[in-house]
Amino acid sequence: MTDSEPTLADVRRAIDEIDTEIVSLLARREVQVRRAATLKTDEDGVRAPARVEQVVAKVRALAAESGASPEVVERVYRAMIGAFIDLELAEHRGTTGG
Ligand SMILES: O=C(O)C(=O)C[C@]1(C(=O)O)C=C[C@@H](O)C=C1
């Protein structure tokens, strides 16, 4: 049965393994995002829309080089950064007492 097509269960196991890696990377990213929050002085700095566009442009180019869909990668990144901005705002408010 070694030549048989992968089953849905096989594919889902592979996805689960990738998710383990992604969450580990997200944990590393979160540490840096929390550090960034402590270095910002106001909420405009936390939202940093120009930086968001810079990150999105970069990951779209990386996606194209890697064979990933730039559209999917952009949507994932915009959702992820939106969640990190919320986290930074909470962190920032805690840090500054604002
Ligand atoms: O680069 C920053 O200033 C960050 O805080 C990181 C990050 C991101 O998640 O990429 C988060 C919030 C900002 O809106 C911009 C980018």
TrEMBL record:
One of its GO terms (molecular function) is lyase activity. It comes from Actinoplanes italicus. Residues 2-92 form the Chorismate mutase domain. PROSITE patterns: CHORISMATE_MUT_2. The lineage of its organism: Bacteria, Bacillati, Actinomycetota, Actinomycetes, Micromonosporales. InterPro entries: Chorismate_II_sf, Chorismate_mutase-related, CM_dom_sf, CM_II_prokaryot. This is Isochorismate pyruvate lyase. Keywords: Isomerase, Lyase, Pyruvate. Signal peptide: none annotated. One of its GO terms (biological process) is salicylic acid biosynthetic process.
